[in-house]
Design brief:
protein kinase binding, Neurobeachin, Chain: A, domain 1, mainly alpha, 8 helices, single chain, 233 residues
Length: 233
């Protein structure tokens, strides 16, 4: 819940369903994601079926959230060919970022650790010119916080309380199953709508076996850009 005036951590309705991947946190997306998986076929036989062509953790996602903090500002500019990305695509508001997750099944970014300990990344301390939003013409500066947060420090404090709450303690193992555990790959992952592009999985590609240096470098680039699924527990 990133919209209410106050945050009630005793109410299960304020939390996301931790048994589902972020890509289907909105139930409307589940059918589309399943359909995409079932209809996918690679004529070369190299690429396995997948639900998501992007990943929940990659370098671009980290730069997206940490755009106001060096060295990530410079890395973001390098990624965008020497300039800041379009203002509307930047991380400018916590409620809007969650709304984007709810509306866009392609956007499957998870939160980064800084959301639970580092209030400075929410402030445009360096005064970067991040442009203006198209619809409102509002200048992008500090990150817009939920109404229940009195300050950046309060946002981090309450976010951390949410992470350490009874609800999360009772359900975090379901999320661990998806990211690190038995629902990470195989039939359980298919059933949970939790299959990512094949290059993200450990051991999916034997880079040492690829003699062609250009091909190997291209694959390394794909792995680096797509993100990587952690080792399975």
């Amino acid at each position: 819940d990133y919209v209410s005036e106050t945050l009630d951590l005793t109410d299960p309705a304020v939390f996301r369903d931790l048994s589902k991947p972020i890509g289907v946190a909105n139930e409307r997306h589940a059918r589309d994601v399943k359909e995409k998986y079932e209809s996918f076929e690679d004529p070369t036989g190299t690429v396995d079926k997948f639900h998501y062509g992007t990943h929940y953790s990659n370098a671009a996602g980290v730069m997206h959230y940490l755009i106001r903090t060096e060295p990530f500002t410079t890395l973001h500019i390098q990624l965008q060919s020497g300039r800041f990305d379009c203002s509307d695509r930047q991380f400018h508001s916590v409620p809007a970022a969650w709304q984007a997750r709810m509306e866009n099944p392609v956007d499957v970014k998870e939160l980064i650790p800084e959301f639970f300990y580092f209030p400075e990344f929410l402030e445009n301390q360096n005064g970067f010119d991040l442009g203006c939003l198209q619809l409102s013409n509002e200048k992008v500066g500090d990150v817009v916080l939920p109404r229940w947060a009195r300050s950046r420090e309060d946002f981090i404090y309450q976010h951390r309380k949410a992470l350490e709450s009874e609800y999360v303690s009772a359900h975090l193992h379901e999320w661990i199953d998806l990211i690190f555990g038995y629902k990470q790959r195989g039939p359980a992952a298919v059933e949970a709508l939790n299959v990512f592009y094949y290059c993200t999985y450990e051991g999916a590609v034997d880079l040492d076996a690829i003699a062609d240096e250009t091909q190997r470098k291209a694959l390394e680039g794909i792995i680096s850009n797509f993100g990587q699924t952690p080792c399975q527990l």
